[in-house]
Amino acid sequence: MEVSVTLFGGLRHYLPAGSSFNKCKIDIDAGSSLEALLAKVPVPADKPYMVILNDEKVASDQYADVTIQGDDEVVLLPPIKGG
């Protein structure tokens, strides 16, 4: 199945080849975890990001427990800095 993944900010640089602007489709087996999906997005381990799944934040300790569905939308956001 294909899952829509959107990367914002500097994370866009890590989109797989063939992506358009900040979005891509990732092929993953039905019943796969969010952790398995994220492993297919080549963001380096030292780059922090937050994951939003269908408009809800997912804590990093839950990635292995969340099952991805074909119509899910996953968004990766870098930390926001400001003052």
Number of strands: 5
User: Low-confidence segments, ≥5 residues, pLDDT <50?
Assistant: none
How many structurally independent domains? 1
* Helix percent band: under 10%
What is the 3D shape?
globular
Instruction: Report the portion of residues in β strands.
Output: 25-35%
Strand order of the largest sheet: 2-1-5-3-4
CATH topology (fold) name: Ubiquitin-like (UB roll)
CATH domain class name: Alpha Beta
Largest sheet data: 5 strands, mixed
Q: Could you state the CATH homologous superfamily?
A: Beta-grasp domain
Q: SSE order, as H and E?
A: EEHEEE
Describe the structure.
It is a single chain. The protein has one helix spanning about 35-40, and strands spanning about 1-5, 25, 50-55, 55-60, 75. By secondary structure, the protein is mostly beta strands.
In short:
The protein contains one helix and five strands. It has one helix at residues 34-39, and strands spanning 2-7, 23-27, 50-53, 56-58, 73-77.
Which descriptors would you attach to this protein?
five-stranded mixed beta sheet, Ubiquitin-like (UB roll), 1 helix, single chain, 83 residues, mainly beta, globular
Task: Give the secondary structure arrangement, pairings included.
Elements: E1 2-7, E2 23-27, H1 34-39, E3 50-53, E4 56-58, E5 73-77
Parallel strand pairs: 1-5
Antiparallel strand pairs: 1-2, 3-4, 3-5
